[in-house]
Amino acid sequence: MTVAYLGLGANLGDARQTLKDAVVCLAQQRTITVLAKSSLYRTAPIDAGGDDYFNCVVKLETTLPVRHLLALCHKIEHQFGRERPFRNAPRTLDLDILLYGEQSIDEADLIVPHPRLVERAFALVPLVEIDAAIVIPQHGRAAALLDSVSDQRIEKVKSPCQCPMLDALSGNSADKGRCE
Ligand code: ADP
Ligand code: MG
């Protein structure tokens, strides 16, 4: 079993609903146990045009080797209609492996920790929300990196939705009773 963190993002279609559905999809995998889900965040696109993004981070435990987890991420992205017309194109769903245990991987098609994790508020802020003490291999405590991304627009989304399943996954006591 390995603990991994996935970053979810979307800015095409009903992006908020897509992220909720994608978390349920992950939780339904026999090979995955979802341990925590961050709040939902609204964020500015970076190096791209298009609408604002919605982002969240999921902490999970999995029996999948990391490459199988990457393949599953691609399969789920595809199921949610992901297309790649050009780099940084708007997307119905992006599923990135932020961390996989304490492993560092540097291969052509898989880099872990995710290469942009430490530069992006949309990944760092929800990661620290669900695991305040998390350490990023080669970079140290994630919380110590928050200052360096404080110029990036990110706003926690508040919702009255009371979905019991997602609520149970929420690691954020301040938002108990909310699923986003
Ligand atoms: P983005 O980099 O904007 O997320 P894509 O989702 O299209 O763009 O991913 C491009 C490629 O990045 C994927 O085909 C995948 O092989 C590669 N990649 C490298 N490291 C990772 C990672 N940690 N998580 C997800 N994809 C990764
Ligand atoms: Mg991606």
Automatic annotation (TrEMBL):
The keyword Transcription does not apply. Its EC number is 2.7.6.3. Pathway: Cofactor biosynthesis; tetrahydrofolate biosynthesis; 2-amino-4-hydroxy-6-hydroxymethyl-7,8-dihydropteridine diphosphate from 7,8-dihydroneopterin triphosphate: step 4/4. GO terms for biological process: folic acid biosynthetic process; tetrahydrofolate biosynthetic process. GO terms for molecular function: 2-amino-4-hydroxy-6-hydroxymethyldihydropteridine diphosphokinase activity; ATP binding; kinase activity. Transmembrane segments: none annotated. Gene3D superfamilies: 7,8-Dihydro-6-hydroxymethylpterin-pyrophosphokinase HPPK (3.30.70.560). Keywords: ATP-binding, Folate biosynthesis, Kinase, Nucleotide-binding, Transferase. Residues 87-98 form the 7,8-dihydro-6-hydroxymethylpterin-pyrophosphokinase domain. It comes from the Bacteria. It is an enzyme of class 2 (transferase). It holds the Pfam family HPPK. InterPro entries: Hppk (IPR000550), Hppk_sf (IPR035907). Belongs to the HPPK family. Catalyzes the transfer of pyrophosphate from adenosine triphosphate (ATP) to 6-hydroxymethyl-7,8-dihydropterin, an enzymatic step in folate biosynthesis pathway. This is 2-amino-4-hydroxy-6-hydroxymethyldihydropteridine pyrophosphokinase. It comes from Paraburkholderia sprentiae WSM5005. The lineage of its organism: Bacteria, Pseudomonadati, Pseudomonadota, Betaproteobacteria, Burkholderiales. The gene is folK.
